[in-house]
Amino acid sequence: MKRISDFLAGVPMTIVSGVFLAASLILMLMKMEVPVDPAWVSVIISGIPLLYLAIWRIIHNKGMSKISSALLISIAMIAAVAIGDTFAAGEVAFIMAIGAILEEKTAERSKKGLKELISLAPQQGRRINNGNEEMIYAEEIKAGYILRVLPGETIPVDGRIISGNTSVDQAIMTGESLPVDKEVGDSVFCGTINRFGAIDMEATNVGEDSSLQKLIRMVQDAENKQAPIQRIADRWATWLVPVALLIAIVTYFVTQDIVRGVTVLVVFCPCALVLATPTAIMAAIGQAAKHGVIVKSGEALEKMGKVDTIAFDKTGTLTFGKLEVSDTIPFSKELDENELLVLVASAESRSEHPLGKAIVTHARGEDLVLKDAAGFRMEAGKGICANVSGRNLFCGSEKYLIEKGIDIPQQVSDTLHELRNEGKALVLAAADGFCLGVIALSDVLRPTANAMVALLDGMDTQTVLLTGDNSRTADYFAKQAGITSVQAELLPEEKVRHIIQLQQEGKSVCMIGDGVNDAPALKMASVGVAMGVMGSDIAIEAADIALMSDDISRIPYLKRLSNATVRTIKFGISLSLFINFVAIIMSFMGWLTPTTGALVHNAGSIFVVLIAALLYDRKFEYCW
User: Are 148 and 128 in contact (CB under 8 A)?
Assistant: First the structure.
């Protein structure tokens, strides 16, 4: 029976229902009689799913939830058929079928992102057993196993490095734009990528206890907590049905006219009420889409209007997520900025490290001619060495230069400290036992970030920064953007905990992020907004809304649109109730029949739809 109901409630059969209902109306207006009213087809196609839903809810739902809008319309439909007004029965059933289809289209949510997240889980690991390497399945790895991870491989479980140095891309877990240098004793996470040196590690958290599996579980749990949208008409049906029946019965006993009683039931059907929400939502979703904002559900729009706290990720959200050379500072009087840049870029020309690549790209962008580099050598997680113009050049971290016997004067250390406080990554250059200079690289704040935060502040909306980056970098960019509340060095589960904490304080939280690591927080927040262009597919699928242009200045626009949508829905509901009230009085007085009552209440539904549709072309005060 459910399969039959689903088939009849589908778009193709609903179109057929509408065609036969239109044919019935034409014949009625032309006063032509036929052996069988075409409206019977509408009653069967659109009425059976309603009747099935009403009966199913009576049997399976508990308490007052047994009473639904489907029950009221089924009663009105049966009553109309009983007195021979087939058109009225078909009309209310058809309008409800249209409302159900519209609402279903606006509430669809994709599950593809979770599957992609699961696919990131490593399948194998390289176990070291009695000095021999063997590949084993990830689920066979146990705590205490010694594993070897080669450059380019994914770390199969959480663990601790016991041999080797490397740089690890932890973007999947922390969202950090740079690989993190790791050495003996440091922890590494499942699903992160070993970029350079080979390491041996001891497995610590394996299987379901690994950080990536916890990430997957958090997305699943948050997905399960997303309750389906309860239809407004059903929320009101608990009192609407008894009131409608009571008024219909009173009308019959007072007037002694069964037709008037049935007319009351027909005009009492909440068709306009059902259409008010999905049509406004679809218009708003279309309005947003014109400006590169993809809204996945009506529930997201409604909740966005109630948001009073917005939490931002940093890398790829407030910033572009792309490192650029910001400072070139020579410490030797023998070199100017361009000469220092040429030396370092020439040495880094064979490097695969993101910092080295960014320096080379910048130098070439300045039309500088690089020199040949001989004897290139890289020490993973530390730096590189190369011979440029006859000078043995070391480029890397301060620790790396000290290991090579390079003296770092106090004045240089002070400069480095200032640059680090600005959240910049540093590449020092040294030759002949002296530090020649430093090249600083920084992510770039989006130019609209500060104005966007100021606009949100003006709308009484608090802004918070939640990031996996180090605290100095986070503080620097938060200050530039005008955000005062900062939480840094967070793993995905810690971001979720901060979201929950804000919600427990009575806040309605919107999370905005772009990476896989943001997916659980996007799901847990009241509303999740993903950066669509740079963002991962998983973040986009986990979010309720996606900004396809990566323009965060659209956030204030989105909030205004959400507020307007909620106001439009409330107005549509109020209007539909007013129309119903007037129609009930006219039915009681005998001025309407079931057929004319159905047409009047159909006209009310169309009026509500037209008001909602105006959202699509409404002009908002843009923020970009």
Answer: yes
Residue 315 DSSP symbol: I
Ordered by start, the domain boundaries in the chain are: 2-109+227-283+561-617, 120-219, 293-320+445-548, 324-442
* CA-to-CA dists, residue 417 to 337, 408, 421, angstroms: 20, 12, 6
Residue 173 in this model has a pLDDT that exceeds 70: no
E strand or H helix that includes residue 85: none
Contact 158, 203 (CB under 8 A): yes
Sign of CA dihedral 251, 257, 260, 261: positive
Pairs from 120-128 (Cβ < 8 Å, separation ≥ 24): 120/172, 120/191, 120/212, 120/516, 121/190, 121/191, 121/212, 121/213, 121/216, 122/154, 122/155, 122/156, 122/157, 122/190, 122/191, 122/212, 124/156, 125/156, 125/157, 126/150, 126/153, 128/200
Residue 324 pairs in a beta bridge with: 442
* Both tokens assigned to 36: 């069988």
How many CB atoms neighbour CB 577 within 10 A?
17
CA distance linking residue 219 with residue 110, whole number of Å: 13
Q: Is 181 helix (H, G, I), strand (E, B) or coil?
A: strand
- CATH architecture, range 120-219: Distorted Sandwich (2.70)
What is the set of active-site residues? 313
Give φ, ψ of 290 to 5 degrees. -65, -25
Q: What is the DSSP string of 324-347?
A: EEEEEEE-STT--HHHHHHHHHHH
CA dist 593 and 382 (Å) reads 86
Provide the mean pLDDT of the chain. Answer: 83
Burial of residue 470, with CB atoms counted within 10 A of its CB: 0-12 exposed, 13-18 middle, 19 or more buried: middle
- pLDDT confidence of residue 226: 42
The 10s digit of each residue's pLDDT in 556-569 is: 888 888 888 888 88
| 8 A C-beta contact, residue 92 and residue 76 | yes
- Say how far apart CA 21 and CA 38 lie, in whole Å: 6
CA 162 to CA 174: how far, in whole Å?
22
534-552 confidence digits (pLDDT tens)? 555 666 667 788 887 677 8
The number of residues in the chain equals 624
For the structural domain made of 324-442, what CATH number should be given? 3.40.1110.10
pLDDT at 262 over 50: yes
**Is the pTM value of this prediction over 0.85?**
no
Largest distance between two CA atoms of the chain: 111
Of 179, 185, 178, 181, the closest CA to residue 161 belongs to: 185
Q: Which fold has domain 293-320+445-548?
A: Rossmann fold (3.40.50)
In the chain, the N- to C-terminal Cα span, in Å, equals 52
Containing 202, the helix (H) or strand (E) segment is: strand 199-203
